[in-house]
């Protein structure tokens, strides 16, 4: 009798254990989140394709551009030099989700920033149309020439910017800008 009771308790324990474990594996991680892009940020390019317009966050950008190639491999020795220089700096990224130059440069920029643990949540990201404007004209204060444009700030003062493409490489240009070297973007006059 005691044996049957112990067997029943043991079997019940196993069923509970199996049931609990299968339940745990079905739960999503708190880091698995579905990114929503509101319709208010969606527009059309000149060919009628959907694009993002306005101020977006890094998660929305990554969700929208998840099919863009991300094969860029930044130089780790340069990243180590950038990391202490960029911590207290702010950035503005102005780009177009329709733009081939943005598609070429932005995945590498994101990889660099994530590699050095830059707080991308504090980076202002503005998605413009083919005329380099947004519905609310939030880009007007940035004196755009071409996109993508990556602007670096120190205490709300512009240090410098990368315009359309880097002169050396994204990380080398960032290092030159943040270390105070005489950097001139491709359209500097």
Describe, in plain words, how this protein is organized in 3D.
This protein has 189 residues and is of the alpha+beta class. It has a single domain, classed as Glutaredoxin, CATH 3.40.30. It is built from 5 helices and 7 strands; from the N terminus they run αβββααβαβββα. It has helices at 2-26, 58-64, 76-86, 100-115, 170-178; strands spanning 42-44, 50-52, 54-56, 90-95, 124-127, 149-154, 157-163. The strands form 2 sheets. It has a 5-stranded mixed beta sheet. Helix 3 (76-86) runs parallel beside helix 5. The protein is globular, with a radius of gyration of 24 Å. The relative contact order is 0.14. Residues 12-31 have low confidence and may be disordered.
List keywords for this structure.
189 residues, alpha+beta, Glutaredoxin, 5-stranded mixed beta sheet, 5 helices, 17% strand
Please state the CA-atom Rg, rounded to the nearest Å.
Answer: 24 Å
Q: Tell me the CATH topology.
A: Glutaredoxin
Query: Could you name the ranges where pLDDT drops below 50 across 5 or more consecutive residues?
Result: 12-31
If you average the pLDDT, what whole number results? 85
What is the straight-line distance between the termini? 95 Å
Sum up the overall morphology in one term: globular
The strand line-up of the biggest sheet is 3-5-4-6-7
Helices, by number, come to: 5
CATH homologous superfamily annotation: Glutaredoxin
CATH architecture, please?
Answer: 3-Layer(aba) Sandwich
Topology pattern, helix = H, strand = E = HEEEHHEHEEEH
Strand content: 15-25%
Number of domains: 1
Provide the CATH top-level class: Alpha Beta
The largest pleated sheet is described as: 5 strands, mixed
């Amino acid at each position: 009798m005691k044996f049957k009771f112990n067997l029943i308790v043991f079997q019940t324990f196993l069923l509970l254990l199996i049931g609990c474990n299968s339940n745990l594996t079905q739960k999503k991680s708190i880091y698995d989140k579905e990114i929503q892009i509101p319709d208010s940020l969606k527009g059309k390019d000149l060919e009628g394709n959907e694009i993002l317009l306005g101020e977006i966050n890094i998660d929305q950008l990554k969700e929208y551009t998840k099919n863009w190639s991300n094969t860029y491999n930044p130089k780790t020795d340069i990243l180590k030099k950038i990391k202490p220089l960029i911590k207290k700096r702010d950035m503005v990224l102005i780009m177009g989700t329709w733009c081939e130059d943005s598609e070429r440069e932005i995945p590498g920029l994101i990889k660099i920033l994530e590699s050095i643990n830059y707080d991308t949540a504090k980076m202002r990201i503005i998605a413009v149309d083919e005329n380099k404007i947004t519905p609310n004209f939030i880009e007007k204060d940035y004196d755009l020439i071409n996109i993508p444009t990556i602007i670096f700030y120190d205490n709300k003062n512009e240090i410098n910017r990368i315009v359309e493409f880097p002169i050396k490489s994204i990380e080398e240009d960032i290092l030159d800008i943040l270390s105070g070297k005489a950097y001139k973007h491709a359209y500097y006059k």
